[in-house]
Amino acid sequence: AMLRASLRQVSAALKEGRVTPTELCQRCLALIKSTKFLNAYITVAEETALKQAEESEERYKRGQPLGILDGIPIAVKDNFSTAGIETTCASNMLKGYISPYNATVVQKLLDQGAVLLGKTNLDEFAMGSGSTDGVFGPVRNPWSYSKQYKEKSVPKSHSEDEESNWVITGGSSGGSAAAVSSFTCFAALGSDTGGSTRNPAAHCGVVGLKPTYGLISRHGLIPLVNSMDVPGILTRCVDDAAVLLGSLAGHDPKDSTTIQDGFKPFELPNLTDVSKLSVGIPKEYHAPGLSSEILALWSKAADLFKNAGAKVVEVSLPHTPYSIVCYHVLCAAEVASNMARFDGLEYGHRSDMKDSTESMYAATRREGFNDVVRGRILSGNYFLLKQNYEKYFVKAQKVRRLIANDFVKVFRSGVDILLTPTTLSDAAPYTEFIQEDNRTRSAQDDILTQAANMAGLPAINVPTALSERGLPVGLQFIGRSFQEKQLLTVAKWFEKQVQFPVIQLEEVKRHDADVFQHQKSASFS
Amino acid sequence: QKVSVEVLEHLERLALVDFRDAEGVERLQKAIQFADQLHEVNTDGVEPMDSVLEDRCLYLREDDVTEGNCTKELLENAREKVEEYFVAPPGNIPLPKLEEQETFLQGS
């Protein structure tokens, strides 16, 4: 039961000595091993994690823990630089690459005593919405193995085993979402450029927070789209997300796109009165392809707020349908620029080709990048050609302003927060998902999450209910810039109302049972 | 309108990434088609947006050296090096012409 606790609960247990950091670390590592089939982790840093846990234990013994995160096992998406631990971005281009420095967010976690269990799997260079397109293979959604999903799946035949039935995690931070969802860590870092934290959070039934652009440092996050990327936070409950946010937010001199305003970490109040709250329901988020199930859930949620006394109004964000096209162009353009650094000379894969510098670069990139990455680089370069620059790149930048202005207008009209679906449907089976190509999939799946990245706004997925197939469905709240406290307060209230069920996983149960044989005290109420 | 072979070649040279096959070229065609939807939006009088933080001043620090001296660590990740240099094959040699390349552009 320890592993199923929230971050705050387990932190209290550590403080009270009910469990030690090394015990906790060992249990997480053991569970990672027994859930290896999920393919959530690319690298498990067993030795360093245990060492960090030991150091944490010393601090607890001296009565001097560094804070609430001391001794807490966490996982980090493999596009964050970690000193001494391989950072691959799930690409051949960076296989074997060991960064000489820690990303600021990683350093902050380590400085507070967190235990880094490992690096999680993703779509190659975070391009994708399934966590299926990395060189280490796809990530499997833990809910595929849950009692809730298995009960609802109709067995097709005796010979058809659950192997072919498993569903995707969503992406691109699928590994991180799966790690949190399967209890192998208490929080994980993801990244969010078009929905890459919120999408897998929705499919894996965990909380996924995309902070306001400029709040959390991107130093060390291998960039995709510099003007939209943010580090994302994945946890099992909203309060835990607030804890992580408190540890990570704030100006970083190494990232000049972090704002200089002071940030004060906060604890979330237990909101009981929502009568002063105005919730906006953007009608354009009733997007084509939205499942009737999710539509109904969204409606039910709106009613929940209404019945609790909040003001619930329909609003309009008219340029929403263009956010995907706009993203498509801006993303490709920034990617074309960002990927130029991978030439084999200073780090990463290098081809054996030696005829000339240019041919070495070309061969290195040919060998190192997958189709999706190469495709975006080429499109990006097309949109940036002199003859296309105004027509595509600048045009997209103008549309971006229109999208951002839509939000400004709505928030100015008295709406405090927006309530929308996070995904169009519950998680698709892998075999179905891969039938469409990556770009089509991303275009479909990002539609509800992308606009928040365009406008730089904070947004959060809160797991809401199980679908008819027994899989998680989440809803999204979008808030005003830098108003994370309000966003999370409302999200916490909503989380309390919906009481999303705990995943029932055989592996975790079995694991708990084994562990209980050996230990004396453990239980949580 | 299909993208001309000259542009495709130009792109491969600029990007130093190849289309690989007809499918790669088709992918670009579809990407352009998709992007063309942007032209449905009226953006008269709208300024392009570079960053959501455009109303703020970016942080600039003093021009003082605060870190460095990490030559050894930085060289560790390079495959080919000599003393404190990264070694590259000979430069100023343009990529082979289209006909000599292994691309499938001719077929598209």
From TrEMBL, chain A:
Full protein name: GATA amidotransferase
GO cellular component, one term: glutamyl-tRNA(Gln) amidotransferase complex
Gene name of this polypeptide: Qrsl1
Keyword Transferase: yes
GO biological process, one term: mitochondrial translation
Keywords: ATP-binding, Ligase, Mitochondrion, Nucleotide-binding, Protein biosynthesis, Transferase
Keyword Nucleotide-binding annotated: yes
Annotated ranges, domain Amidase: 27-146, 168-488
GO function term, MF aspect, one: transferase activity
TrEMBL record, chain B:
Keyword annotations of the record: Transferase
The protein, known as: GATC amidotransferase
The keyword Transferase is annotated on this UniProt entry: yes
GO biological process: glutaminyl-tRNAGln biosynthesis via transamidation; mitochondrial translation; regulation of translational fidelity
PANTHER family noted in UniProt: GLUTAMYL-TRNA(GLN) AMIDOTRANSFERASE SUBUNIT C, MITOCHONDRIAL
Molecular function (Gene Ontology), one example: transferase activity
SUPFAM superfamilies: Glu-tRNAGln amidotransferase C subunit
Entry keyword 4Fe-4S: no
Any matching Pfam family: GatC
Superkingdom in the source lineage: Eukaryota
One GO cellular component term noted in the UniProt record for this chain: glutamyl-tRNA(Gln) amidotransferase complex
